[in-house]
Amino acid sequence: MRAGLLIALCLFSLSSYAVEFADLYRGEVEVNERDNAARNAGVRSALAKVLIRVTGDDALPSSDAGKALIRRADSFMLTYAFQTTVPMTLSVSFDKAKLQQQMRQMGLPIWGAQRPTTIHWLALEQQDGRTILINDAVEQGELVASEAEARGLPQLLPLLDLEDSLKANINDVNGNFPKPVIEASQRYGSDFVLMSSIYPEQGQWHYRINLYSGTVADSDFYIPRSLLHSDGQVASVELAVEALLAEVAKYYADRYASVVSAERQQTQLRFTLTGGVEQLVALRGYLVSLAPVQAAHVVAITGTQVDLELDLVGGLEEVEQLLSLERRISKIEVVDQLQQRDVQYQWSDLD
Predict the structure, then answer these.
(1) Which residues pair with 123 in a beta bridge?
(2) Where does the signal sequence lie (predicted)?
(3) pLDDT for 179-216, tens place per residue?
(4) In the chain, beta strands by DSSP E
(5) 229 shares its domain with 310
(6) Which domain holds residue 251?
(7) Same domain for 219 and 125
């Protein structure tokens, strides 16, 4: 699965924004044997991984609701296959519709496949006192990528080439000076910029997180505001990477995941299309891929404008948050004859 995600991120690396994370409902775990006992345990462990990825909550599998779902892991399973790698692994695919239905009945959040991209600037102080920035070329880059993938986080590490070094450096990351780092991140086109530090102190490993919007304000005097600030201490570098990415995933899930409402909601949105019927098909396909949207019906077409009625299992605010991440959608504010403001959207093909 990691290869597929890396390919997708490479395609979006210089103009990304939200991407669709594939295989959210497939889990892969290491196993020692191919017998029924190993398979049953592996299926439960695979579902635990899927639940973390779908809810954005590392603690969900150990909750009462999570344990109840994991006990029924076989009932959600579609397929499984042992992979004769070293170590041997078990790959399990779960029934998305059946699992989501049960999660909604239990009032659990569901974070859809459309996810924001993050450029992650990580400063790691090593035991010898040297501090390095992490990218894909160093050993720790594999760890960071693996933990991000485990939580369904489309993440990029900076190239740390000459262009990056001319705009930002390790002191900016360690000292939490976000402006040069955000400006250096513009080439990557990510929705968010994550600045984190990991360093040893008194036998523990400390971590610090600051998350910022990836958008640079059109002003020389703007001051970036941290959307998420957190710190903690754990026993190892590996646990520090897990902890900080778990907090970032939880922040995104709290912002973008949907929880079923007591009553089903409907809303209408108006889109202006810049192409033909194939754009309408793509737009409807995109909308129903969003976790809060159960169905999208065309109710009116006038010239290039189309009105769609959405059946929601979450709130409209969650839909609007997700629309703001999609590069093909532009928000348009229209003022009518009574000077009332109406929000509409434009759907355009990608360049």
Answers:
(1) 133, 197
(2) 1-18
(3) 999 999 999 999 999 999 999 999 999 999 999 999 88
(4) 19-20, 26-30, 77-83, 89-94, 114-115, 118-125, 131-133, 155-156, 192-201, 204-213, 228-234, 265-273, 293-302, 305-312, 329-335, 341-347
(5) no
(6) 114-256
(7) yes
